[in-house]
Specification:
The protein has 288 residues and is α+β, with helices and mostly antiparallel strands. The chain folds into 2 domains: 2-54 and 165-287, no CATH class; 59-155, Alpha-Beta Plaits, CATH 3.30.70.3040. Helix content is 71%, strand content 8%. It has helices at residues 2-18, 20-56, 70-81, 94-105, 135-146, 158-200, 202-210, 215-248, 260-287, and strands spanning 60-64, 86-92, 123-128, 151-155. A 4-stranded antiparallel beta sheet has the order 2-3-1-4. Helix 2 (20-56) packs antiparallel against helix 6. The radius of gyration is 30 Å and the shape is elongated. 21% of the residues are buried. The model has no long low-confidence stretch (mean pLDDT 78).
Length: 288
């Protein structure tokens, strides 16, 4: 069994060397089709990163009533920390809030000099737990905090969160549909590219079938070739994607590239696509 596998692999690579021109054309076509897939996956990866960052930045702002004592602040802090939805709670005094506001104004800080008193209230900045960073949980937690004694107002960007949730859902739906289209397109293009190789070697295939070779024996070298071409095409497409990323960073400076782990997953996916494309092309030919 092992000897047979070694023979089929060697035969596949000998065939690739004998048909360098057709192999090169197939790799070029596969690389360009896989580049579309790589661009799509990179865009998806960056979208998910932005979604993750937005989730991490979600906070609930709890503003306290004027005149709340230190004991009341400590009691509120304990009550909010004890809630299942909260992760971290940071107290921001009205003095600290005014100092931060002055820093944000920069050169226009003189506008605050006319104030006779600090109009900003004490507040808590509440970071929800990861599993509760959704519209329903945050709204529920904000409602419980608003009912606490000493709390005057609770804000969590309801309108923004509603729009953000809708945008994320739409992005996931579009992402899934476009992803399937791109992957199916890549398989179709690769299948047709491999078909060129099959047509160029139809006489060898016919001879093998005449001497009694099984379809599996005929198919395996092509699947190995497709896997190899898929791996080479993946490397070429990643190289092209690097150039696209560098050019895009002129306009999107925060654009990130694949991590090493994701690049490996992409490569193995392309190897699988190459194998499937080869199998699909050859199966149609053997049926004919």
């Amino acid at each position: 069994m092992i000897r047979k596998g070694v023979y089929l692999t060697q035969e596949a690579f000998r065939t690739l060397l004998r048909h360098k021109g057709v192999t090169a054309i197939s790799v070029v076509i596969m690389s360009l089709s896989l580049l579309m897939l790589a661009v799509f996956l990179l865009a998806t990866d960056n979208l998910l990163r932005l979604v993750g960052e937005a989730h991490r930045d979600l906070k609930i702002y709890v503003y306290l009533e004027d005149g709340v004592s230190q004991t009341g602040v400590e009691t509120l802090h304990r009550q909010i920390v004890a809630m299942d939805e909260t992760d971290t709670v940071v107290f921001v005094s009205k003095q600290q809030a005014l100092a931060d506001f002055r820093q944000q104004l920069g050169e226009e800080t003189d506008l605050l000099d006319a104030l006779e008193a600090n109009p900003l209230p004490h507040a808590f900045w509440v970071q929800p737990r990861t599993e509760h960073k959704n519209r329903q949980s945050i709204a529920y937690a904000a409602g419980k905090m608003l009912q606490l004694d000493g709390v005057s107002e609770v804000r969590y960007g309801k309108e923004f969160l509603d729009k953000f949730t809708a945008i994320v859902k739409a992005a996931y739906y579009v992402d899934t549909v476009v992803g399937l289209i791109v992957i199916l397109s890549a398989v179709f293009i690769i299948s047709n590219a491999v078909r060129l190789t099959v047509i160029g070697r139809r006489r060898s295939i016919e001879i093998l079938r005449l001497v009694g070779a099984t379809n599996r024996f005929v198919t395996m070298p092509f699947i190995v070739e497709g896997a190899f071409q898929g791996g080479v095409a993946a490397a070429v497409s990643l190289l092209l994607l690097t150039g696209v990323t560098l050019l895009s960073r002129r306009y999107l400076p925060d654009l990130t590239y694949f991590s090493a782990e994701k690049a490996m997953i992409y490569t193995f996916t392309c190897i699988a696509i190459g194998s499937v494309g080869s199998f699909t092309a050859l199966r149609r030919y053997l049926r004919v």
